[in-house]
Design brief:
The strands form five sheets. The chain has a seven-stranded mixed beta sheet with strand order 8-7-16-17-18-15-19. Strands 10-2-1-14-21-20 form a six-stranded mixed beta sheet, with helices on both faces. Strands 5-9-6 form a three-stranded antiparallel beta sheet, covered by helices on one side. It has about 350 residues and is of the alpha+beta class. The protein starts with 7 loop residues before the first strand and ends with a helix. It has one domain (about 10-344): FAD/NAD(P)-binding domain. It is built from eight helices and 21 strands. The protein has helices spanning about 15-25, 65-80, 115-120, 165-170, 175-185, 245-250, 255-270, 325-344; strands at about 10, 30-35, 45-50, 55, 60-65, 80-85, 90-95, 95-100, 105-110, 125, 130-140, 140-145, 150-155, 155-160, 185-195, 215, 220-225, 240-245, 280-295, 310, 315. Bound molecules: flavin-adenine dinucleotide. Flavin-adenine dinucleotide binds near residues 61, 161, 319 and 326. Flavin-adenine dinucleotide (FAD) binds near residues 12, 14, 37, 292 and 325.
Amino acid sequence: MSSPTRPTAAIIGAGIAGLACARVLDEAGWRVTLFEKSRGPGGRMTSRSLAAATVDIGAQFFSVRHEAFRREAETWLKAGLIAPWPWKLWRVTNDSWHYRHDGRERYAGKPRMSAVTRHLSRGLALEVSCRIVSLARDNGRWTLQDQARQHHGPFDHVVITAPSPQAQGLVAPHDSRLAEACEGVIQRPCWAAWACFDQPLATAPGVSPDWQAVMFSDGPLRFVARNDHKPGREQQGESLTLLARLEWSEAHLEMHETSVANSLLTAFRKTLPDTTALPAITAIGGHRWRYAQPDVFAAGEAINRDYRLSANGLALCGDGWRGPRVEDAWLSGHHLGHALAASD
Ligand SMILES: Cc1cc2nc3c(=O)[nH]c(=O)nc-3n(C[C@H](O)[C@H](O)[C@H](O)COP(=O)(O)OP(=O)(O)OC[C@H]3O[C@@H](n4cnc5c(N)ncnc54)[C@H](O)[C@@H]3O)c2cc1C
């Protein structure tokens, strides 16, 4: 179907929120174009391909709580894009390892976290390596300008899914209410690091050799995942993703990425008995997420309004408007898509 009267939308950001919104609008017959500053879709569900391993450097897994998200996750499961993980989860308290069995439903992308976002982006118009720097409104329609001064549009609607501090700069010249709403959402930073090894990790006494992930109660670390113990990656060599606690990330925001990775690996090593040596490292690195996780998010008491819409065709969605998880981001984008489709 191709009709000149189909509404048009530009969506800034091809993370899970932007893609969820795009899918709803596309199904409703809108003409949607996604603009993504990175080289591919994924956002904070991205993975990095190294010579020895594919490591997830953003979300490590996601949980399923809401019915609409459960239905969506079931389609991903059937398509082989996700699989349950982790189900062998440990917790470290005072350097002591305990098996954590809470029975919660969790999934990881297969064979990488970004399998989900790549799948969702299929068939949609997506401009990558395209950072939108400003918006202009003319005759009731929106034009976008990118970092290379190229113009895109016009569009009837613009959906911004960038973390709120970045979204604020785009909406401020056009809508003070939206800009103010962005100010109320705090996104905290997180350092993510990875280390690849030439051998599997040695077994620590009292810990099952096939542990998949571990959460930490204190210290610099909050989560460590074994990438080769994730679904679809059994053939790759041993590698860890190490996520720092948010407070530690804030205190070490300007540290060099290799120093961060070494510090986090040392912290992990200290939780193992002295007799358990780490294998030789073949690759190590880090990624700083300046806006990793909403600490104060906007939905709060009004969880049904997990997005923002203005009368002039601007809209905001993403985890900052609902909560700090993949599921929250998806729901925010999904709900905004339905609200826009219903408004047409
Ligand atoms: C290290 C880390 C670990 C996490 N672990 C978990 C976990 O285990 N479980 C869980 O449920 N959640 C986890 N999360 C949170 C989860 O990843 C996020 O809540 C979710 O992915 C956010 O999706 P989003 O679409 O709202 O935002 P994003 O994924 O950030 O998408 C926004 C997109 O907009 C793009 N963009 C920004 N500005 C522009 C611009 N000007 N022009 C064009 N494009 C732009 C960005 O590149 C990005 O791709 C984690 C996050 C991090 C950082």
